[in-house]
Amino acid sequence: MAKRIQTIDLDCYYGDFKAVSDINIEIEPRSVTAFIGPSGCGKTTFLRTLNRMHEVTPGASARGKILLDDEDINAPGVDPVRVRSTVGMVFQRPNPFPTMSIRENVLAGYQLNGIRLSKSESENVLERSLTGANLWGEVKDRLDRPGGGLSGGQQQRLCIARTIAIEPDVILMDEPASALDPISTLAIEDLINELKEQYTVVIVTHNMQQAARVADRTAFFNLQAIGEPGKLIEYDDTTTIFNNPANQQTEDYISGRFG
Ligand SMILES: Nc1ncnc2c1ncn2[C@@H]1O[C@H](COP(=O)(O)OP(=O)(O)OP(=O)(O)O)[C@@H](O)[C@H]1O
């Protein structure tokens, strides 16, 4: 079930360095939200706090609140592993387990969490996830071949299948198409459009046309100077951000005057 994400006064640190400051945002369920902004403004850092991946980096920490519907994901006693299965993540470079079969890749989340599925349950998860990732037709006859044998675009869809296999509420994507050719990129964008019917989708992208194509809402981040933290400058419907932004910094960025 798709969930709403809300952050309240969120700061992200690497050691003493504050990389992202004071983010207040509400992300609606069953929508696609794009994070855009110049390099180093903290898009990836902020994204990774939303499923507690940020804290995996030694010395990294976050302050403030992140609510998933009403649950504070940083509250004492909340298991970060459970958070990461509720808030799945797809990375820039497709990262299937290369020697594991397509089948094993899709089911990897269950195995890693020690959940045993019956044969028929596994088959259902496999078909549902690969169909949901628009990959079933291309791989159904070679489910036992290695995931590393697929094309880059297919590998990324396999990673999306692996993410949706464990039925998350939110899918975070960090530049999911930046390593792919234009045709595979369009396949991923079509898929993102379908995923929002069931999930809350958040995507970091450097490609502004991509943000305009896939996102319902867009958040523009910026940093005032090197060494300063990144901040959320403007957050609105994508059409407003691209056609009628309220903030001059947004206007300058989307019109290509910097970044
Ligand atoms: N592991 C890390 N250790 C220390 N500082 C880091 C680390 N990762 C990122 N940073 C710093 O945090 C700030 C935000 O980086 P981040 O990668 O989140 O920005 P970004 O907007 O996603 O950039 P890009 O668009 O280039 O991917 C930068 O100043 C960066 O140098």
UniProtKB/TrEMBL annotation:
Protein name as catalogued: Phosphate ABC transporter ATP-binding protein PstB
Under the heading SUPFAM superfamilies, the entry gives:
P-loop containing nucleoside triphosphate hydrolases
Q: Which organism is it from?
A: Yaniella flava
Q: Which residue ranges does the record assign to the ABC transporter domain?
A: 5-248
Extract one GO molecular function annotation from the record: ATP binding
What gene name is listed for this protein?
pstB
**Entry keyword set:** ATP-binding, Nucleotide-binding, Translocase, Transport
Q: Which Pfam families match?
A: ABC_tran
Q: Extract the coiled-coil ranges from the record.
A: none
Q: Read off the InterPro entries from this record.
A: AAA+_ATPase (IPR003593), ABC_transporter-like_ATP-bd (IPR003439), ABC_transporter-like_CS (IPR017871), P-loop_NTPase (IPR027417), PstB-like (IPR005670)
